[in-house]
Each structure stands twice: as C-alpha cells, then as structure tokens.
C-alpha cells in the first residue's frame, strides 16, 4: 500500500484531520527561505507532543549542518527529519552517525537528470528520498511547497536506480495523482497545496484524495 504524507500541517486540529483521513506521515515545516506552512519550533513541538508517540511526525528543516539539525531535533523530537536542502558530504556522514535511530529523508529537487546522480550519492546516508519541485539555485531558494509538478520521467528513472524508498511530491492533486503513481511507482506520496483551500487543510479534498488513492491500491 502506498504511503501518504500530509505536509504543511500548522495546528493540532490539522494534524488530527490528516490522521483521521488516513495519513501515514505528518509533515511540519520549520524556518525556510520561502514557501507555505512555516510555523515556529515551539508550535511544532506543541503539535508533536499532543499526538501519540507512535505518530510518524516529520520535521522539515532547511539547516545544512549536523549541529543545527540536531539542535532542532532535540527540541521538537519528531519521528523523522526531512532535509530539504543539500548537506555537504561530511555533514551527511556526521548527522547519520549522531542520529543512527532517527529516520532521515533527503529531498532531491528534480531539475534535470543530474538529480539521479545526486540521489545515488546521498542514499547511503539516509533512509528515504523525497522528490520535489523546488529550485535551490535561485537567489531565494524554493525548497518545497511550490504546487508545481516536475518531470516524472526523471523521477521514474531515479526510483528504478536507487536502493532506498522514494516519496513523490510536487503539485500532486486529485486529478493527477493516479497518473503520477502509475508512472513513477513511488513508495509514498507527499501532499501540501493539493488538499488545501485558501491555505487551509480542506477535509473534503483530503477525503477525496485518500479515497482515490486507496481505491487504486
């Protein structure tokens, strides 16, 4: 069964709504250079502490040093960390060594076929990879939550060539998710804008999305 992560959660109520719909993972966005769903670390900690300890909460971080990331982890205590920017090799090694039991999800922003090689270089240091449609090369980095799709043919090749599970993100919604899953064959999918209305989690869109994906499963 394909796993579903609902991201950009900004309150206890949204977290509970996503879990009731059947979300496997809950994404919480900390400080970013741009993008939706950003909330403070105290708010993230409050949401995580209100949920069952078995809930697979994911802290999205734009920090690029092991020291800064571990500081966030120690404060918020999520189940997993989603690294939305590229860490240097030494920092990736150090983070893996210092947090051996924490699930690490590395985001790869699919710009062109070089993203495949980027994923193959990092896979040994992380547990999962998430493919998104940001652009870390812009003056103001976009590291997720764009609402845009990317080249799924590249994503398909990447999934076939790496040895860790892969999430697919980027502009997924009710109308395109089945096509995306059939083409890419990911381990899981990641949602933000596709289940929101005016920035707020929409229960109807959420339930419709889960129904179409679960029926396809």
**Total number of beta strands:** 10
Total helical segments: 8
Measure the end-to-end span: 6 Å
| H and E order | EHEHEHEHEHEHEHEEEH
| Rg estimate, integer Å | 16 Å
Task: Explain briefly what this protein structure is.
With 217 residues, this protein is of the alpha/beta class. It has helices at residues 12-21, 41-50, 66-76, 89-98, 114-122, 152-161, 177-184, 203-216, and strands at 3-6, 25-29, 56-61, 80-83, 103-109, 128-132, 166-168, 188-191, 196-197, 200-201.
Would you give an account of this structure?
- The protein is an alpha/beta fold and 217 residues long.
- Helices cover 38% and strands 19% of the residues.
- It has eight helices and ten strands.
- It has helices at 12-21, 41-50, 66-76, 89-98, 114-122, 152-161, 177-184, 203-216, and strands at 3-6, 25-29, 56-61, 80-83, 103-109, 128-132, 166-168, 188-191, 196-197, 200-201.
- The strands form two sheets. Strands 1-2-3-4-5-6-7-8 form an eight-stranded parallel barrel, surrounded by four helices.
- Helix 4 (89-98) links the parallel strand 4 (80-83) and strand 5.
- Helix 3 packs parallel to helix 4 (89-98) and helix 5 runs parallel beside helix 6 (152-161).
- The N and C termini lie close together (6 Å).
- 41% of the residues are buried.
- The model has no long low-confidence stretch (mean pLDDT 92).
């Amino acid at each position: 069964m394909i796993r579903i992560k609902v991201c950009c959660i900004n309150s206890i109520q949204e977290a509970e709504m996503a879990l009731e719909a059947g979300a496997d993972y809950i994404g919480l966005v900390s400080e970013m250079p741009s993008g939706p769903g950003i909330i403070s670390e105290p708010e993230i900690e409050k949401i995580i502490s209100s949920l069952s300890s078995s809930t697979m909460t994911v802290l999205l971080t734009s920090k690029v040093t092991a020291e800064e990331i571990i500081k966030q982890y120690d404060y918020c205590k999520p189940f997993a960390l989603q690294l939305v920017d590229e860490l240097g090799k030494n920092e990736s090694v150090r983070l893996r060594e210092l947090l051996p039991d924490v699930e690490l999800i590395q985001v790869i922003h699919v710009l062109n076929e070089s993203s495949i090689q980027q994923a193959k270089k990092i896979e040994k240091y992380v547990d999962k990879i998430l493919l998104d449609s940001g652009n870390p090369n812009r003056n103001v980095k976009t590291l997720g939550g764009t609402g845009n799709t990317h080249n799924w043919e590249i994503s398909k090749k990447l999934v076939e060539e790496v040895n860790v599970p892969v999430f697919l993100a980027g502009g997924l919604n009710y109308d395109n998710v089945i096509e995306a899953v059939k083409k890419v064959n990911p381990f899981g999918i990641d949602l933000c804008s596709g289940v929101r209305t005016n920035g707020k989690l929409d229960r109807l869109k959420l339930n419709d999305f889960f129904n179409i994906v679960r029926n396809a499963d």
